[in-house]
Write a structure and sequence with these properties.
The chain is mostly helical. The chain has helices at about 15, 30-40, 45-70, 75-85, 90-100, 105-120, 125-135, 160-165, 170-180, 200-210, 210-240, 240-245, 255-265, 275-280, 290-295, 300-305, 315-320, 330-345, 350-355.
């Protein structure tokens, strides 16, 4: 049998190769008093959003349970499809809450971050914050410094479309995250998803974190284990095992197409090592419901320029500085444009992987 002699670049090792750097970021011109106007936070505005998001999940979950109890299997499947689709957007919610810019009240921020983190238990929000705030925003797409993201590759094909639209229970990911949870390792499904063992980037950010930050990550892992163990026990003791599908297992069966539609534009085909966020980030136009579910992160250039602006003020901020920003495309058209640009810019996915994938741990 012929041996595969193909060689690939070794995955980047942040433990030995990470670089600190000072970047002179390029932002739009805006007066300090105008910027302060956009960074104002409102408990009422975001509480309505946060509770509205949970309300949609309550509707889909209730519909699935009623259909199940009545033996209406097609309706149950459709309701679970919608439930899983919405559940997948917990990542966007935890991203926003992790920035601590959503609510004016610190206690409300912590309360919602805890509630959302418990409901979407495979995503430890405190581990994520260590990476996202301290590295991704500080060194956006700078190779050797931002270990969270790269100029991503977009591929569209019938095979990928089937995978995006057809839900399937992700047994392997469920087992890996349960393994982490049961051994009190921080979970990271959705933004890392590397398996049971912490990857090099996760180990790196934990190693560089303060002792207080590491304790916070660990405490949340203990809380999640305790709460979900109690929830599972209660569901089984009362015979309401269907509740496990609606909460504990829900992060692992939703279709991926909507998250793909909303989030792919963030850094796909963008330029690495560039100080202008208009070059290293991308925007898209979403319909109102998608924007709501995605917590308005389609305004991604604006978010990176001024991470202190709450997500619910990004649209107004965009209008205020629109003459200094590139035009936006509707998300569907942008996806096809990014797929063409990926082929033109990188050739194949393998070529992209050899050039940029090593910085994502491939």
């Amino acid at each position: 049998m012929a041996q595969d002699t193909t060689t690939h670049p070794a995955a980047w090792d942040p433990m030995t190769e990470w670089q600190d750097r000072r970047i002179d970021w390029v932002r739009v011109d805006i007066a300090p008093e105008d910027l302060r106007r956009f960074t104002r936070r409102s408990d009422a505005l975001r509480l309505a959003h946060a509770l509205g998001f949970l309300g949609l999940l309550a509707v889909t979950g209730t519909a699935a349970y009623l259909a199940f109890s009545q033996g209406r299997w097609v309706l149950m499947a459709l309701a679970l499809y919608a439930h899983g689709l919405i559940y997948a957007h917990f990542g966007a919610a935890l991203h926003e809450l992790g920035h601590h810019t959503v609510f004016a009240s610190g206690w409300l921020t912590k309360a919602m971050l805890t509630l959302y983190g418990l409901l979407y238990w495979p995503w430890n929000p405190y581990l994520y914050r260590l990476s996202h705030v301290h590295y991704h925003h500080r060194y956006t797409l700078h190779q050797g410094s931002d270990g969270e993201d790269t100029p991503n590759y977009v591929e569209l094909s019938p095979r990928i479309a089937v995978r995006l639209f057809l839900p399937s229970l992700q047994f392997r990911s469920l087992a890996q995250n349960l393994g982490r949870l049961l051994t009190l390792k921080p979970t990271s499904k959705g933004w890392r998803g590397r398996g049971y063992e912490l990857d090099a980037w996760e180990r790196f950010v934990l190693q560089r974190a303060s002792e207080a930050e590491r304790r916070q990550v660990c405490r949340f892992s203990v809380l999640v284990l305790a709460v979900h163990a109690a929830f599972v026990a209660a569901c089984l003791a009362t015979g309401q095992w269907f509740g496990l599908l609606l909460v504990t297992v829900a992060p692992f069966y939703g279709p991926a197409f909507h998250n793909f539609l909303c989030g792919t534009h963030q850094h796909a085909c963008c330029q690495a090592n560039h100080p202008d966020f208009r070059v290293s980030c991308g925007d898209a136009v979403l319909d109102p419901l998608s924007s709501f579910l995605y917590w308005h992160m389609e305004y991604h250039i604006e978010h990176h320029m001024f991470a202190g602006i709450p997500c619910y003020r990004l649209k107004a901020f965009r209008r205020f500085v629109a003459d200094q920003l590139p035009p936006r495309q509707p998300a569907v058209g942008r996806l096809f444009a990014l797929a063409r640009l990926s082929r033109e810019k990188y050739g194949t996915w393998q070529n992209w992987r050899d050039q940029f994938g090593r910085y994502k741990g491939y």
